[in-house]
Amino acid sequence: MSLLRPGGVAWLLAHEMRLSFRALTGKRAMGGVGAMIGLAVLALVMLSGGVIIGLALRKLDVPVIPLSAAIALACCATAFTLMLSQTMAAASEALYERGDLDLLFSSPIAPRTVLFVRAMGVATGVLTVFLIFVTPLLGPAIILGHPEWLGLFGVLAALALLATATGLTLAMFLFRLIGPRRTRTVAQVLAALTGAAFFLVSQIRTLMGERASESLFQSLAREAAEGRMKIPPVGYWPLLAMLGEPLPLLAMLAIGAGAFALAALSLGKRFADAAAVTQGAEASAARPAKGRDRAFAGGVFAATLAKELRLILRDASLLSQVLLRVLYLVPTAVILSRNAGHGDGGAALAGGAGVVVFLAGQVAGSLAWITLSAEESPDLLAVSPAATRSLRRAKLAAALLPVALLLVVPLGLLLWLAPVTALWTTLGAGLSAWACGLINVWHQKPGKRADFKRRRGASWFATLAEVVVSALLAVTTGLAVAGFAPWAAIPLACAGLAMLALRRSDEQIAKVLRMA
Amino acid sequence: MTEALIVRGLDKTFSKPAVRELDLTVHPGELYALLGPNGAGKTTTLRMVAGLTKPDRGSISIFGVDALADPAAAKAVTAWAPDEAMIYDRLTPLEYLEFVAGLWNVEPRHAKARAQELLETLGLASEARRRCEGFSRGMKQKVALAGALIHDPRLLILDEPLTGLDAASARLVKDMLQARVDAGGTVILTTHILEVAERMADRIGIIAGGRLLAEGTLDALRTQAGQGGGDTLEDVFLQLTADGAPA
To answer: What is the rounded distance in angstroms from the CA atom of residue A513 to the CA atom of residue A515?
Structure first.
């Protein structure tokens, strides 16, 4: 009997992997080659870093002490929350994205086999993301003298399986609890919160004002140094497993695989039923929109702005992704205000201001890509007599408005506590958001809103340009806040020059869009 | 009298020629049906008229406005509804019409009243405040048609307007188009349903291989095809496209 018996788990898994690979490499042969070359270059850069790390750590002997165990636990917790964020979103999306689900469920293949393979696909996807980053960085260290660190890959596999089982169970639980219409939105928002959970937990003490500017790692190190850290024996498992101890490693793998098998096999039938219920459920149960007697917006700008804001607010997947960035932006802005209130040093203020400026640019850039490049009905705009410039202005405004609303409270608070810092931060954040929006105007690359998650549709060049310009403006703001305003002119000038180089005329934009 | 649409010497080549030396005239107040086999160049022609595709050569005049020199003025009096509805799933029909009215700068109060009237006529009044994401293809087509009519265009361009509509909806749309033409509006449409063209069109153009093979009333087409008076449009169409098909 063939290993890939049609209808079997291995056969279906091979089918899923083939689809995933083709989605990764793209439809066009050249696109696939380009992606491969890009990945190869990235891998080479990371590998170079890995060799340096490997040489530096060649003689390091990791001690099995409470601090090491705590760091290993913290790393596992971070990896798990990030993995859970992805698996929860993927598990809920699997219920709604029809794809070939109808075909599979209409075939004689058992629903539990379909779910098992889908779940395997989710776990493999999550694990692959981590392996892509971990392998080139730690591979050389393993080869250069620490073969026992291979256990780290086992730990990651165990975490991916556990995260998939948890994500799947949570998605099904939500489905049962709040029904098909709300599950998608709530699961996406929860996924975003989970993704940022570690950051939020690590900053909670700072946010609450107990001890400003102390990170979780600093706190752990202090407790270890003072001999107050107590870790139970099971708490050492992740560290020992990472160091290649067979029993802890096998125990972790068994827990992950057991949870995965239990969830995938026991939820199979329910998953099939839930997937069937979701078809049309969102729309049929959708409530009529509010504003029954509201007047129509008049003119191109107002109508387009209203349309873009509605579409942003109604896209659960998009909201969750933006929320993830916002979850880093708002606490940073609040911490900045707190530091100002505590009269903390200039370095903390400058750093916080820089981070706010950088993140404001990133959030605005993401939204601008959505409003400008991910237009769902470009032909409708093209056949209308509306001036392209008016449409662009409205779309840019729709991208900048949410950023302004997010920052208004923390920056208002900062204005009261430290007016000069607030002024520089507001200027920097505004400039950064505007610049990133403009980059998206000049370098539009039509894509689908669904591609937002990984910015697959966005131009790599535009994404890189956004990062560079917002980073330069972040440095500018940081220097100005730190009292080195004259020096701030240097990164500001660099950002200005970059923007001049990036600028495209209306004709150039139109030409590129016609060719797209 | 200013013609509704005058197309002269229109050429468009993608990887191969799509439209070649096309001449077309549509009179005001008539319903003109453009017929042709798959890949004949119908949609490319209409996209060029709507300002979505730039021709390689030729001229397009819409109610006396040079559509290539002044596209905004031409678009202001034109509406385009393709076979795939250009709508936003996460907007309600009313919100969609608000947006489209904004694009054409329709006065908000007038636009709202017109939107409600159109949705009522198209049987969508009860769905006016529900998002379009769960709508059937036919319902989406009707929302798109309402969008095309919100600014009361002088020239309505429709690509396969009856695709996906059930019998009752198709009748409704046909009646709306007929009423529009009776009121002096101009409609140009493509369709694969020859019976629709036969019964509704004032004149019919048959296109194949990017060239206009024949044009005129059904009787004129019968004469051009060298067939008898009892032949259906289907017979005429098949005869003409077989004769004129590119080698």
So the answer is: 5
| CA B173-B178-B180 angle, 5° bins | 95
Q: What is the token pair recorded at A1?
A: 């009997």
User: Does B70 contact A at CB distance below 8 Å?
Assistant: no
Token pair for residue B60? 């397009």
DSSP state of A452: G
Query: Which has more confidence, B232 or A494?
Result: A494
Task: Kindly report which listed range (A230-234, A257-261, B22-26) carries the lowest average pLDDT score.
Answer: A230-234
Q: Does B130 touch chain A (CB under 8 A)?
A: yes
Rounded mean pLDDT, A454-473: 77
CA distance B35 to B22: 14
Residue A505's identity, in one-letter code, is S
H or E segment at B18? Answer: strand B17-26
Q: Is this prediction's pTM over 0.90?
A: no
* A&B contacts, CB < 8 Å: 114
B125 and chain A in contact, CB less than 8 A: no
* Distances from the Cα of A488 to the Cα of A350, A410, A472, A482, A491, angstroms: 12, 23, 9, 10, 6
In this predicted model, what pLDDT tens digit does every residue of A422-450 receive, in sequence order?
A: 999 999 999 999 999 999 999 887 777 66
Check: CB of residue A326 under 8 Å from CB of residue A193.
no
Point out the residue among B75, B90, B130 whose CB comes nearest to the CB of A383. B75
**Helix, strand, coil share (%) of chain B residues, nearest 5:** 40, 25, 35
Q: State the pairing for strand pair B203-208/B31-35.
A: parallel
Tell me whether residue A45 is exposed, middle or buried, using C-beta atoms within 10 angstroms of its C-beta: 0 to 12, 13 to 18, 19 or more. exposed
Distance of alpha carbon A230 from alpha carbon A224, whole angstroms: 9
Angle between helix A197-208 and A66-96 (nearest 10): 120
φ, ψ (nearest 5 deg) of residue A4? -95, 60
- Lowest-confidence range among A31-35, A494-498, A500-504? A31-35
End-to-end CA distance of chain A: 48
Q: Which residue has the higher pLDDT, A215 or A169?
A: A169
Characterise A457 by phi-psi region: left (phi > 0), alpha (psi -120 to 50), beta (else).
Answer: alpha
Name the residue with higher pLDDT: A342 or B82: B82
- Burial (CB count within 10 angstroms: exposed 0-12, middle 13-18, buried 19+), residue A275: buried
Please tell me which of the candidates A288, A311, A380 has its beta carbon nearest to residue B90. A311
Structure tokens at A163: 């995260």
pLDDT in tens, B183-228: 999 999 998 888 888 889 999 999 998 999 889 988 888 888 776 6
Assigned token pair, B35: 């017929």
CA–CA separation, A87 vs A93, rounded Å? 10
Q: What is the mean pLDDT of residues B30-53?
A: 92
| Strand-pair partners of B189 | B33, B158
User: A296, B88: Cβ pair inside 8 Å?
Assistant: no
Q: Does B95 touch chain A (CB under 8 A)?
A: yes
The minimal CB distance from A382 to the residues B51, B105, B133 is found for: B51
> If you write DSSP's letter for every residue of B21-86 in order, what string do you get?
EEEEEE-TT-EEEEE--TTSSHHHHHHHHHTSS--SEEEEEETTEETTT-HHHHHHTEEEE-SS--
Confidence bin at A454 (pLDDT 50/70/90): low
